[in-house]
Here is the input.
Amino acid sequence: MSDFDVDLELEGGPLKDDYVLEQIHFHWWSEHTIENVRYPFEMHMVHRNKKYPNMTVANLNKDGLVVMGVLFHASLERNRVVDDILADFVPIMSYEQINMPIKIKTNFKMTDLVPAITSYITYEGSLTTPSCNEVVTWIVLAETFPIGIDQVEAFKSLEYERGKTLANNYRVIQKTNDRAVIIVTNEFRKDSGNGSASLKSTGSVTALLVVAGLLFKYFN
Here is the structure.
């Protein structure tokens, strides 16, 4: 999804600049794992650094992009916003519709997609699709959100070639390259050096720190 009706910007936390939301896309299964658990679905919200005029230029700079990753866990509870997105699926399911934009009929608020941000994991990494430029500050929400398995299965019906559907579209876990991972939480944890959750990711991470404070918001 792209070409939003309003500008949505991201600021604060680990970010030195302001970033504007450029697109939202999805992966099934998840591209990040937490405590070796791979989730059935992951949403990526791709933001461009406002000091760069477009995505092409941003892709060439170390601080060019911020991608927020949101993980979804399997649930008997249907995700209402995902249902809204699926309502517009029929025109894009066939191979002939690849790269053919459509105007979605359903409107939803950003807070419907991400109801709350209580803590997150951040690290410096790369895009997960070619050319995999290392220009991304990753922000992966520690909280997961519900999704019905039948909703995930609906995404698998998309054709990537004529007559062939997309069973999954995630990048496998990459080797670590001594990247630091920072967990940002609203609560100060005295035992932050013990028993902290570990994250394996497509961006290759090894170290783990915990800090306090959450300064993160979307606005119109």
